[in-house]
Amino acid sequence: MEAWSDADIQDFPGEHASDASLLLPRLSKALAGQAPLKAIVLHAYNAHAPYRVRYDPAHAPYTVASAHADEVLSRENLQEARLEYANAVDASVGFVNAVIGQLDGRIEPVFLEFSPDHGENLLDDSRAVWGHELRHPTRWDIHVPAVFWANAAWRSTHAAQWANLQSQIGAPLMHIDLVPTLLDAAGVRYEDGRAQRVDLLAQKVPPHRRRLTQRALGATITWDTLVDEARAAGPLAPAR
User: Fold this and answer.
1) What is the DSSP string of 34-81?
2) Could you tell me the pTM of the whole model?
């Protein structure tokens, strides 16, 4: 907060409303402002539980019979809860597309990053874990997508950087890469001494990079370890 003491910060109530209804009007207002440079942060709810309130059932890809499938997760209602989650993820993608729709016609250069901070455990293996923010993470709640987008004005003036970014689709990225990449897109370079991070516009991700996630302050665990743990746990036993 101290770093951006002049920022226009807007809190909003109603966590059971959609990201589009809460945030798109605020994005329109921010874009209409007269500041020569803008850094706009949209903190969406995305696919947080309860999943049902994150999407409009009339436009969801999957029909779910129960209105409370994700409230008390069990083997008996697991399939419906997973469909609820899939619908919420679909709504999140729709929200990102709506943001891009507002940015695409801008004449000034625009660069966008989007990434969730976590996924969800949905009884994915025999450990039968549900939720996120666990003392010991799993492969299921830390593996999330990253979306990078730029409008024509930004791409035309940063062709080499855009090509470098495009060449890394499928590379082993980490959240630590997002801030240096975003700052570089805005023409800001900094040195923070952390060798693990990669500016995706100016550098290449090492092909055999060891991805890490932080379990606690000063304690990390590798992605490969989490994959091995899930494999060792084996599949979830079916409902009786």
Assistant:
1) --SS--------TTPSSGGGGS-GGG-SS--S-TTTTTS--STTHHHH
2) 0.90
